[in-house]
Automatic annotation (TrEMBL):
Protein name per its UniProtKB record: Mediator of RNA polymerase II transcription subunit 4
Coiled coil: none
Encoding gene (name): MED4
Subunit and partners: Component of the Mediator complex.
Native species: Albula glossodonta (roundjaw bonefish)
Residues annotated as signal peptide: none
Keyword set includes Transcription regulation: yes
Pfam families: Med4 (PF10018)
The entry's keywords: Activator, Nucleus, Transcription, Transcription regulation
Subcellular location: Nucleus
GO molecular function terms attached to this record: transcription coregulator activity
Similarity comment: family membership: Belongs to the Mediator complex subunit 4 family.
Residues annotated as transmembrane: none
Length: 228
């Protein structure tokens, strides 16, 4: 394996192993010198040179290890900063999605409103048409009786008693569908009561009571409804 392919840790361990082996050989040589078994000339010097060489390599590798330790600490700080930035990005992404949803809803509502405006513009009615329609309603005596109207006259004022009995109020109060030509008999109107009922009948609906009684004279004759 090439030296460049080995990590600093592996290189340090290798140098330490060499130092250990050389130290043992040197110690053994010193022990032999005491027993008068001298080693070959120059062998101790060679071992010392190798020991010094390995020690120099060890010191250089220690400097490299210290520098790499500093770089590793900086990398850890940067990793924490990256995690923080990533959290900020995720939060911003969530807020952008919420804003996108709100904008999409607003755009949809605006389009629907524009469609309604366009539809209303296409179906708009001129003031002249409204005046003509109001004149036609007034001419048909839908809101007031003819000038020569008298009690018992089958013509309007609208609504007639028959139409009142056939409407929602009549069905809810179970009024009998009687009357003459859509109107009450003159004596019943004069007495201020409905046939078969007591004067000023009460109609009870959902949460309120409706008091009905006739009022007015002649063409102004009408049925008044009062909430009580």
């Amino acid at each position: 394996m090439a030296v460049s392919d080995r990590s600093t840790k592996e290189r340090l361990l290798s140098v330490l192993d060499d130092l250990e082996v050389l130290s043992r050989e040197l110690i053994e040589m010193l022990a032999l010198s005491r027993t008068q078994k001298l080693p070959q000339p120059g062998e101790d010097t060679q071992i010392l040179e190798l020991l010094v060489q390995r020690d120099g390599e060890f010191q250089e590798l220690m400097k490299v290890a210290v520098e790499q330790g500093k770089v590793h600490q900086e990398m850890q700080v940067l990793e924490k900063e990256v995690e923080k930035r990533d959290s900020d990005i995720q939060l911003l992404q969530k807020q952008l999605k919420e804003a996108e949803h709100i904008l999409a809803t607003a755009v949809y509502q605006a389009k629907e409103k524009l469609k309604s405006i366009e539809k209303a513009r296409k179906g708009s009615i001129s003031s002249e048409e409204i005046i003509k329609y109001a004149h036609r309603i007034s001419a048909s005596n839908a809101v007031c009786a003819p000038l020569n109207w008298v009690p018992g006259d089958p013509r309007r004022p609208y609504p007639t008693d028959l139409e009142m009995r056939g409407g929602m109020l009549g069905h809810m109060s179970n009024l009998p569908p009687n009357g003459v030509n859509g109107h009450l008999p003159g004596d019943a109107l004069a007495a201020g009561r409905l046939p078969g009922t007591s004067p000023a009948p009460l109609m009870v609906f959902h949460g309120f009571t409706l008091l009905i009684h006739p009022s007015g004279v002649g063409r102004n004759r009408r049925l008044d409804c009062v909430l009580i």
